[in-house]
Amino acid sequence: TVHKTTAIEVYYQCGIQNNRNNALVQLFCQVINESCFNVLRTKEQLGYIVASGVRNFGGAQGCRIIVQSDRAPSYLDERIENFISLTKVF
Length: 90
Known about the structure:
alpha+beta, three-stranded antiparallel sheet, 2 helices, 43% helix, 33% strand
């Protein structure tokens, strides 16, 4: 049996790395971590793996959300964008 599996990583770049930006991005990722899993994995049942966290890349940093699923990446992207737009953190 072949399982159709896709994955998506959505990365929101938040600026260059400095103490203030690092703290804000880490705080944001910490605050949304549980709700990200709860909404995307538990309630919407989008995938096998749902994770979020800080990602540093090329001197910039941001927040990433990863979903592994059997759904189309375009659908996963739409649901992640919806989750972020409804997240009222600050």
